[in-house]
């Protein structure tokens, strides 16, 4: 298995740079030397089978897990050199959309959105908070649900609310963990459209962890195939699709068969 | 540990995980003290938690405190009667309730009611990634969730404990007044005749220590819950059992210390 060679060009446009990332849990090696870079304004999908290390990778990017070896540079800051306060400052510039949406179930839709804002930005007036919440809800088409509780929302609406909660801090980088998992095809298409809208409206650069080829094709400029803990191929959808690599062909053929 | 050949455990899986648990609990407690005195302080969340813990336990504490007062007075009466010492009943109940029963009963009830609720809530938040969501939103989940709950239990349980003692004495008076013609004023005067500042102070200290124990144990178990909903159930169960065990252990230690001070 030959690993994809990364060309680190135009470094001023690189918002995320991952170099030689390794992560193990006990004797299980999950990431075995991952290299990747994300350009400013780009959407990149990380495709791979379940257990290939996709979620571990995104959790390392969000600072939720520490790598055993390797470097992650995000918006010019090296993650492993940051103090907790500096990491929090960086986190305010990135948004993380969880697979499970991870909505605060003890809070209303309004509170789910206002909570990160009021906790991180001091001295905001009630009107400023209301305006920010309404703007974020409007962006995801959930303005009519402002007074609802999260349990009253459908799966797709929960995903949208999870994305809105990240948008309220106006992130520069978005990290999506399986944004279309468990959704019907129509809702998947709506979420895909929303991801592209967020990219255009908020000028974000995104990494989208998914095993959904339609999502990857419709939302991303490039895709990266994560096989057995390392990237086997990185390129446009057509470039990766046209590869002769057996494991990638197998992944694509199973997805299209299903 | 790998240099021990094929055996990857230092002693055995059970013993290793026990010591690991003790060490992690120690680290967790240490982190509480580091975070508790560092800004920002989430006063609103502490007040919310005091309301959840304190006010919502009030009816249960009232009922239990009253019943305990009545039952203990009823049970003690025959023994005192056999010595012709029924007049000592208020004094005996004052000592029993204020020194021991008030804080102990309150904390045992709270270990079940409040401890399980904290552990289940934090455990659910953990397995549904809500704690991770806070962390990636640059909100310190330990400070917001754990510190506020531990501070709230440490404030609420001493207050509830004194309230329980007061209600327990009312229950005791109810029983005494049904048998003898005693006024509430005389009953309370007798009940407090043998109560010293040390008794009040030790009662408060006990309740404070028990409140802290319930908060920290329940938060610890919930904060590190794993393996989905089953793990949350397990964490909740362990939180209640461990809290009750530690409360009895602390009772033993505090009583020894207070007795030592009393007779010093």
From TrEMBL, chain A:
InterPro entries in alphabetical order: AAA+_ATPase, ABC_transporter-like_ATP-bd, ABC_transporter-like_CS, P-loop_NTPase
SMART domains for this protein: AAA (SM00382)
Keyword DNA repair among record annotations: no
ABC transporter domain boundaries: 16-253
GO MF entry, a single one: ATP hydrolysis activity
Alphabetically ordered keywords of this record: ATP-binding, Nucleotide-binding, Transport
PROSITE patterns: ABC_TRANSPORTER_1, ABC_TRANSPORTER_2
PANTHER family xref list: INTERMEMBRANE PHOSPHOLIPID TRANSPORT SYSTEM ATP-BINDING PROTEIN MLAF (PTHR43023:SF6), PROTEIN TRIGALACTOSYLDIACYLGLYCEROL 3, CHLOROPLASTIC (PTHR43023)
Annotated protein name in UniProt: ABC transporter ATP-binding protein
UniProtKB/TrEMBL annotation, chain B:
Domain of life, source organism: Bacteria
GO cellular component: ATP-binding cassette (ABC) transporter complex
Entries under Pfam families matching the protein: MlaE
GO MF term list: phospholipid transporter activity
UniProt KW keywords: Membrane, Transmembrane, Transmembrane helix
Transmembrane segments: 53-72, 92-111, 150-174, 194-218, 239-261
PANTHER family cross-referenced by the UniProt entry: ABC TRANSPORTER PERMEASE PROTEIN-RELATED, PROTEIN TRIGALACTOSYLDIACYLGLYCEROL 1, CHLOROPLASTIC
Record's protein name: ABC transporter permease
UniProt source species: Flavobacterium aquariorum
